[in-house]
Design a protein that fits this description.
The structure holds two protein chains of two kinds.
Chain A lengths: L1 H19 L4 H21 L25 H32 L11
Chain B lengths: L2 H4 L3 H14 L6 H27 L11 E4 L10 E4 L1 H21 L10 H17 L3 H19 L5 H32 L4 H7 L5 H22 L7 H8 L2 H7 L2 H16 L12 H21 L3 H21 L3 H29 L6 H11 L5 H6 L7 H18 L5 H14 L12 H29 L12 H19 L1 H16 L2 H8 L14
Antiparallel strand pairs in B: 1-2
Classes of the chains: A mainly alpha, B mainly alpha.
């Protein structure tokens, strides 16, 4: 499981970085999205990988924390997803404005000669 | 819990509420919106002043808390999010609200009407800045970073235009990538230590197992890169001069504090987490900051010399000031830190004033002047000499005289020449570097300290050359009919910022005493840690205290 997750994160971030370095704004935004997926998975994995362990404590009785998954990284991922989504949407608007103003989807706003 | 305890949350809640209220009014009622914004910003300045006094108040006895702690949701320290007020955060809050007041008053002349939602974005930016300065939790810091960045994306594009959209696009991409690095760093640190509270981290880092230390340091380094992008350290700062040059004048003026957010976090975290008590991780990253800072100064100084447009010059000077601060933090000396803090306050005020002034000066020049200046550099000035001779004896209009004196004040501050506060700041840093054992105690000066001294002095020289050249072009050039129309409301904020620098010079003693105390407590964070971790919870009504 660790290997699969590590490979998934690596592939996501690797493709994301490659796209981020491309000259078209659409490639850049897809690259940023891929990177943020990879980062979210990474945050999740920092709470250690557990199968079948709930992150939320049941009510009543004494509980053994060792039986539960770490809830904090999951809460962090949730926050990171929301913030990442919002900022990517904002970037999308700027991307469209730039396309409208310059008539080019190059990141520098003009086609290289 | 009296009202004085609740005041810690005001710098975050007040701008949030004001920003939300401003959304309710139509854009056509811009006078009302401006009034609300001005009242809120002034109230924020007052609150910052109260907090400054609160942070500086001497403790009642040796065991009393010296750090203000606010437990959000009344959760005890390592479990909930805390807001922490010490001298450094109070200083940054004060600086933020002063710059905000100046930029806001300036924008009232015309900028605030040239696009929608200026006032809301402005207040949200203040909320993010204040939150970042107050929070004592790493992930909460990320959230406030995103709040201030989201507002700054809106502001950097404010006023529109192809150039702003282009540089804004770059700015947003770089900061989104930086946010990913931030998250990776935070989660690595959490994975190793199991906590996000800064004070708790400082306790746990010395106890980190040998095997995990590599992971912890990798996390801290990645986190550091995210802040260094913000601070503009070479080679991460190429975006900064362009973005700041393209931004509208009041926006650039408030952005002068934005790069200081990165500096603030690095100063706080490097001394708290990797200070003298951090065991095997002690001093981690110090030499990177020192050499990176020096490279930034050199890069910035070359950029200052090469700049034709004044906006560009100011942007590159911002890099010089960032570099000076980073290198000063990297020396890990208490006296250098207090000098650097003084330099930070003075240079931030001066750059902010300069950004505002640039717009007023450039109003007099037609847009082609900058291009013309480049050609004049390349082909020589011979053509103009006859014209200049004919202009002898023309009186300088009053507006230009006022602008010129403000420009001279900025030049003195930026170059670090006496008699203004820029000189005192640089002198404090240099004197601390050359007297590592204290004044008159001798002690051997390290080679890196000599290198830093040289670089700082040369950067001052380059700023002086560039400012003189720009000043001659702007003010001693033949005056045509185009004397800029400057309103009092536009020049007043510039004069106010410069006057504050003057006050900082005259009141240098009390200011240095405050900053010395700040540096002392930053380098010995035991009080900070104790106060945060032992902050008492408020007893709930009845037995309904959270478990």
């Amino acid at each position: 499981m660790e290997l699969t997750l590590a490979l998934a994160i690596g592939v996501l971030i690797g493709s994301g970085v490659w796209l981020l370095l491309r000259p078209r704004t659409f490639q850049v935004i897809i690259g940023l999205s891929l990177i943020s997926y990879g980062v979210n998975l990474f945050i999740f994995s920092m709470g250690r990988l557990r199968v079948g362990a709930a992150p939320v404590l049941g009510s009543g009785g004494t509980v053994n924390p060792a039986d539960y998954a770490d809830p904090i990284p999951q809460a962090l991922v949730l926050t990171a997803i929301v913030i990442g989504f919002a900022t990517t949407a904002l970037f999308l608007v700027v991307l469209l404005v730039s396309r409208g103003l310059t008539g080019s989807d190059h990141v520098d706003g003009r086609e290289p000669n | 819990m009296g009202w004085i305890d609740q005041i810690l949350i005001v710098p975050i809640v007040l701008p949030l509420v004001t920003g939300a209220i401003l959304l309710l009014f139509d854009e056509r009622r811009h006078v009302l919106k401006a009034m609300i914004n001005v009242i809120s910003t002034l109230a924020l300045t007052l609150v910052a002043l109260v907090l400054l006094n609160l942070a500086d108040a001497p403790p009642a006895d040796a065991n009393a808390a010296t750090t203000g702690v606010y437990l959000l949701g009344n959760w005890a320290a390592p479990f909930g999010i805390v807001l922490v007020l010490d001298r450094l955060s109070a200083l940054m809050l004060m600086l933020t609200s002063v710059l905000a007041s100046a930029a806001l008053v300036f924008s009232l002349a015309r900028w605030h009407r040239s696009g929608p939602h200026f006032h809301t974005l402005f207040q949200l930016l203040l909320m993010g800045l204040n939150g970042a300065f107050l929070t004592g939790d790493l992930f909460n810091l990320f959230v406030f970073f995103e709040v201030l960045l989201a507002a700054s994306y809106g502001l950097v594009l404010y006023g529109s235009g192809a150039l702003r959209v282009k540089t804004g696009l770059h700015y947003i991409v770089i900061n989104l990538a930086g946010a990913s690095l931030f998250l990776i760093g935070v989660s690595l640190i959490y994975g190793v230590t199991g906590t996000l509270n800064m004070a708790d981290l400082a306790v746990r880092i010395p106890e980190v197992a040998e095997n995990d230390r590599m992971l912890l340091q990798a996390g801290a380094a990645i986190l550091g890169v995210a802040f260094l992008i913000k601070a503009g350290m070479w080679p991460l700062g190429f975006w900064l001069p362009n973005a700041y040059m393209a931004a509208a004048a009041p926006v650039a003026a408030i952005f002068a504090i934005l790069s200081k957010v990165g500096i603030y976090v690095i100063l706080r975290l490097s001394l708290l987490l990797f200070g003298a008590d951090a065991g095997a991780s002690s001093g981690f990253g110090g030499s990177w900051l020192l050499f990176g800072g020096m490279a930034t100064i050199v890069f910035g100084a070359i950029g200052v010399l090469a700049s034709q447009a004044m906006g560009r010059l100011a942007g590159f000077y911002l890099l010089v000031s960032s570099g000076t601060l980073l290198a000063a933090i990297g020396t890990e000396s208490i006296t250098v830190t207090s000098g650097a803090l003084y330099y930070m306050v003075s240079s931030t005020l001066a750059i902010s004033a300069f950004f505002l002034l640039i717009e007023l000066i450039e109003r007099a020049q037609n847009p082609a002047t900058n291009v013309l200046a480049v050609t004049m550099e390349a082909y020589g000035d011979d053509m103009d000499e006859e014209d200049i001779q004919e202009e002898v004896g023309v009186t300088i209009p009053a507006t230009l005289a006022v602008l010129g004196s403000c420009f001279a004040g900025c030049a003195l501050l930026l170059a670090g020449l006496p008699p203004l506060s820029g000189f005192i700041g640089k002198f404090a840093i240099l004197s601390a570097l050359l007297n590592p054992e204290g004044p008159g105690q001798g002690g051997s000066v390290a080679g890196t300290a000599w290198a830093l001294v040289t670089v700082i002095i040369l950067s001052g020289l380059s700023a002086l050359i560039a400012m003189t050249r720009t000043g001659i072009r702007a003010f001693w050039a033949p005056i045509d009919e185009t004397v800029p129309r400057v309103r009092l409301i536009e020049i007043a904020p510039v004069a106010m910022l410069l006057f504050l620098c003057f006050v900082l010079t005259v009141q240098g003693g009390p200011a240095m005493r405050y900053l010395d105390a700040t540096a002392q407590s930053l380098h010995a964070p035991a009080h900070y840690i104790r106060d945060v971790l032992s902050a008492p919870r408020v007893p709930g009504p009845g037995s309904g205290a959270p478990q």
